[in-house]
């Protein structure tokens, strides 16, 4: 299939919210990106058992990615939020000794247009119970209606490294990849990245930031939402993450982000 978006017939594409970084590079804990893309997980369906060690609670886990826009506010995809009563949303970090530290969500707001079924508004803001550590980078956001001249972005996420459903994904490891933008406008709610060169975001990267640096400012300009793939291939040949990816355009959604951040910050 051609990498050119115009040569991909619309009826041959299926979108997938099984959105890892495919063909990317692992990120060391000392790198800046490790402080910019955060491991966002939703735990649900708790199963409690008893054994000689005591009471053990096991959960099913949904993997996503996020970025911090204030010490207690994180930006992610709307479809990463679960409305289940037993769902526990949290950011998972590791300290210098490799031990896990959890930052639980106290409240979240999903874009109302997304909740009404408009997939071009796949955004959510999450308020954490406590502030993230000072070494986590608070991401800058772009100004509205300004032509950023974007040609490429850095994708970052904790998701699968292989888009073939029958292959192991190895989620939970932060990876990055530089992706070319196929279609972008500050006045459109979403933008498209080319994933046809063996690199792209995938399942578990949903909510992850599209990062760019303009001058001295490193900012998040997109939120990973979904991928497109060719469903006319035999199912055993499906690869969900190597054609195109769609990011929510942060520029377009700045009014909602700023208004919602103000509401949550009053909590």
From TrEMBL:
Pfam families: Trypsin. It comes from the Bacteria. GO terms for biological process: proteolysis. Keywords: Disulfide bond, Hydrolase, Protease. GO terms for molecular function: serine-type endopeptidase activity. InterPro entries: Peptidase_S1, Peptidase_S1_PA, Peptidase_S1_PA_chymotrypsin, Peptidase_S1A, Trypsin_dom, TRYPSIN_HIS. This is Serine protease.
């Amino acid at each position: 299939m051609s990498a050119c978006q115009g040569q991909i017939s619309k009826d041959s594409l299926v979108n997938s919210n099984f959105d890892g970084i495919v063909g990317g590079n692992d990120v060391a804990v000392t790198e800046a990106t490790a402080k910019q893309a955060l491991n966002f997980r939703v735990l649900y369906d708790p199963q409690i058992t008893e054994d000689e060690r005591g009471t053990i609670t096991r959960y099913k886990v949904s993997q996503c990615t996020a970025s911090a826009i204030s010490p207690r506010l994180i930006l992610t995809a709307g479809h990463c939020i679960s409305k289940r009563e037993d769902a526990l949303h949290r950011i998972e970090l590791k300290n210098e000794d490799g031990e896990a530290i959890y930052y639980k969500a106290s409240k979240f707001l999903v874009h109302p247009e997304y909740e009404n079924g408009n997939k071009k508004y796949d955004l959510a803001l999450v308020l954490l119970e406590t502030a993230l550590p000072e070494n986590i980078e608070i991401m800058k956001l772009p100004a509205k209606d300004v032509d950023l001249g974007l040609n490429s972005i850095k994708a970052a996420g904790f998701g699968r490294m292989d888009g073939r459903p029958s292959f192991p994904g190895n989620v939970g490891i932060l990876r990055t990849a530089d992706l070319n933008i196929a279609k972008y406008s500050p006045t459109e709610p979403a933008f498209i990245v080319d994933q046809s060169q063996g690199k792209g975001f995938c399942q578990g990267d949903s909510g992850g930031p599209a990062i760019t640096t303009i001058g001295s400012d490193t900012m998040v300009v997109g939120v990973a939402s979904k991928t497109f793939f060719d469903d006319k291939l035999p199912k055993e040949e499906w690869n969900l993450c190597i054609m195109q990816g769609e990011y929510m355009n942060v520029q377009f959604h700045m009014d909602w982000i700023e208004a919602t951040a103000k509401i949550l910050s009053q909590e």
